[in-house]
Amino acid sequence: MDLLKKTLILALIASIAAIVVTVIYLNTKPVIYAHNEAEFFRIQKSILKGALKFEEIIMQDELCYMGYDSAGRKTGLVLPVSSIGYGGKVEMMIGIDMAGIITGLRIINQNETPGLGSKIEKSSFISQFTELTEADIDLKKENPAGKIDAITAATISSRTVINGVKNGFNLYNNCINYTRKKEVLNRIAAGTYRGTGEGFSGQIVVEVVVAENKITAIKIIRHQETEQYWTKVKSGIPGKILKSQNIEIDTVTGATITSQGLIDAIHNAIEAGEEAGDSPPPMSP
Fold first, then answer.
1. Which CATH architecture is the domain 188-276 placed in?
2. Is pLDDT at 93 greater than 90 in this prediction?
3. pLDDT tens-digit profile of 5-40?
4. Minimal CB count within 10 Å: which of 59, 120, 164, 168?
5. CA distance linking residue 164 with residue 130, whole number of Å
6. Domain boundaries, the chain
């Protein structure tokens, strides 16, 4: 009985402790979240000068932040990237303006050798990247076009930051292309536009209806795809585009070629609308 009693008491104490921890966590979580958000915003502003507001842009597995000034103009992008160094992953954030010039760099997390590789966090090293373009990003001793001096006795760590910044420029280009494609609807006059794509069994022809800078309808005019695959594609892709108002979406698993054919047809219809400008061509039935 004594053993049972002790077991019950321990279980009761453990339950009370769990409740206390949960209550403390629930009460402190908003404070911690707000602090982290404020710190993140402070870092964003420090590396992208002139930006007062940031828009999160999610592109499949990639993430970036578009900065805007007080007048709502784009100032550039904040790009979270990483690279593998001597001591593991080095995480950093890079600010690049709309002209493709680095405005700031911050090392967020690193485990490089203390006193050597850890110097990548020092302003004497990271300040070298400011006002450079993609063509400048390399070590001077490894590339005549490079403009970065390596940290003494820490070439691997220095090169890690170089590689991270190069990754940042790749992400920058992806983000710029993504936003341009997403914003294409703002440049299209209301109308109906036809596009063609190549599916698995032949051409896929669609008509895309645009009104008030939005895609309001996607009409399938003709296709030759196998019904088994076409049913999945037709039920998925047009609905996703209409909901997100974004023509950059993933293909349907198991029907890649048919999916890509439909997506290409929609892309081509949008491009036709962009080229038409304010005078959309009349569509024949």
1. Alpha-Beta Complex (3.90)
2. yes
3. 666 667 666 666 666 556 555 555 454 544 567 888
4. 59
5. 14
6. 53-183, 188-276
